[in-house]
Every structure is written in structure tokens, then in C-alpha cells.
Design goal:
Distance between the termini: 104 Å
Helix content: 25-40%
Number of strands: 5
Strand content: 25-35%
Radius of gyration: 30 Å
Order of helices and strands: EEEHEEHHH
Structural class: alpha+beta
Largest sheet: 5 strands, antiparallel
Strand order of the largest sheet: 1-2-3-5-4
Length: 149
């Protein structure tokens, strides 16, 4: 079991980051591990700061290939645990990473906004009322034959 530790100064104080259960996954072209962050006196550490710390620890050229998430703060605060992935290349990250995580990271365009269900139903019902061609409006009164009494 390998453990890597690096103390770092964040924007509002100090936090220590430790990685454990480090695994080199050649099939998915990535390194994956659990992250333990010790942050006494702070509620939590922003993911951007964590990515910067991991970038320094593992000599990664850009933070675009680093994905972190699933952080849970332990009871009483001061310590959080989460998951981290560092891809070998940005292309590998785009190929293997989940689409929702790519959207969060800004690597993929956001989904097109869906039309609300109620609006779809209202449109459908309006379309049902308009069937075929529009009836011709006749000028000059009624042309119906009159009934004989």
C-alpha cells in the first residue's frame, strides 16, 4: 500500500492531502486513488485547490486531466475523503470519463434545455384542434337547404 502526502497552503489556511490505494490503470490510461484531506479549522477545501495540490504532487502538466469528486466530510470536521483520477492525456480523459463529469469540467458542451412536459402537452392538444386544411369562410349568409314543414 503506497501513501503519498503533501502539505499545502490553500487560500484560507493549510490543508494536508494524502493519497492511498493508488492504482495505475493502463487500460483506461489513468491513475486512480483515494484522497484524504486534513483541513483543521476549515469546513472543506475547494476542488480547484485539491486539483492544484495533486498537480504539484504528481507533476501533471495541466489540471484538465485531473478529476476529483465524491468527497465526504467526517463527523466533527477537519478531515474529508474522496476519489481522484489523473488521466495520462486530455484525449484519454475525453474518451473514458463520464459525460456528466466532462460537462462539469467544461470539456463538453452542456445539454440542450428540454421543453417542459406541460408545454409539450399543450402544444400537442393545440395541434389536435387544427386538423386538415382550414375551412373556407362563405360570404353571404347560410347556403344550407331549408327544411320543409
Amino acid at each position: 500500500m503506497s501513501t503519498t502526502e503533501a502539505p499545502a497552503t490553500t487560500g484560507m489556511g493549510t490543508a494536508t492531502i494524502r493519497t492511498r490505494k493508488f492504482m495505475l490503470n493502463r487500460l483506461l490510461q489513468r491513475r486512480q486513488f483515494l484522497i484524504d484531506i486534513i483541513h483543521p479549522g476549515k469546513a472543506n477545501v475547494p476542488k480547484v485547490e485539491i486539483k492544484k495540490m495533486l498537480r504539484k504532487m504528481y507533476n501533471v502538466p495541466t489540471t484538465k486531466t485531473i478529476f476529483v469528486g465524491g468527497f465526504k466530510t467526517h463527523f466533527g470536521g477537519g478531515k474529508s475523503t474522496g476519489f481522484g483520477i489523473i488521466y495520462d492525456t486530455y484525449g484519454a480523459a475525453k474518451k473514458f470519463e463520464a459525460p456528466y463529469r466532462l460537462r462539469r469540467a467544461g470539456a463538453k458542451k452542456p445539454k440542450k434545455a428540454k421543453v417542459a412536459r406541460k408545454q409539450r402537452k399543450e402544444r400537442k392538444n393545440r395541434a389536435k384542434k387544427q386538423w386538415g386544411t382550414k375551412p373556407k369562410v362563405k360570404k353571404g349568409g347560410d347556403d344550407e337547404p331549408k327544411k320543409k314543414k
